[in-house]
Amino acid sequence: MRVIVGLGNPGPEYRRTRHNVGFRVTDFLADRWGTRMARHAFLSVIGEAFWRGEKILLVQPQTYMNRSGEAAVRLRDFYRLAPSDFVVVHDDLDLPLGRLRIKSGGGGAGGNRGVASLIASLGSKDFPRVKLGVGRPPSGHDPADFLLQPFTLLEEAFIRPAVARAAEAIEVLLIDGVERAMSCFNNGSQDLAADKIS
Description:
This protein has six helices and seven strands, in the order E-H-E-E-E-H-E-E-H-E-H-H-H.
């Protein structure tokens, strides 16, 4: 069994914010795989899918971003999972808007408090990550405030296809492994032209 954890904050006020692109990717996968994010368990909203013969949980922790690990560790303990059974999808301030970057594991949290919580709770850095760029805030703007604001209409034109590409990348990762997904999606030919937004 694999667990796809989309990071974000619960509640309608956060639904379209930059910090919630992880939720959007899991919602997209739920629609694509014909399931619903409807089960409430393990401090999360969960969708259960059987995709290509494997059970996959789509998970949206309801703990708020900086306590995401509390949900993940409950899933780990109940299902007796290894850190590598998790795939974590989250926003990244250091990537240009709409750019996708897959990481096999290791390293730090890159400033993302949700990832930091997962590392602390799971006691491991060894889980794949699918990072979706939301760009840097304008000069003088607080990054925390920037992440909790919704995308502009122009930004949405880049984020919607980026969410679909992130879902495709997760499917490749599940079928062929993280190295194959990295080779397919961590190159410039997959990037959107979002750096043209001024």
